[in-house]
Design a protein that fits this description.
By secondary structure, the chain is mainly β. It has no helices and eleven strands. The protein has strands at 2-4, 7-9, 15-17, 21-23, 31-34, 41-48, 52-59, 65-73, 76-83, 90-98, 101-109. It has a four-stranded antiparallel beta sheet with strand order 8-7-10-11, with no helix packed on it. Strands 5-6-9 form a three-stranded antiparallel beta sheet, with no helix packed on it.
Length: 110
Amino acid sequence: VLYYRIKDINTDGREYFSNIARLNSDNNNRLSVFPNPAKDHITLGGKAGASGNISVKIIDSKGGLAQSVNWNQTAGSFSRSIPLQKLPDGVYWLSVSGSGITSTIQILKE
């Protein structure tokens, strides 16, 4: 469980605080990516909450789509190797969605 609230400071110096919000952490949708930094591939692992299509988009530092991978996944744990050989070295964002998963993870290609 995570708790947070926002502190807002106006230009005249007055401070305002939001109500405390509670977020329940759902560990069932956690993803792992290794190795990171990576050379020629990464392995994406996690747990799909439902059967369906999983879409992985690799976004470059300019916001362009560098690579995409899609597959049909049954509910439950999975591990998938994603090749990176065609990508130049740099920082990328791995955007994963589908089958009850929504996540973005930063990766480094060396």
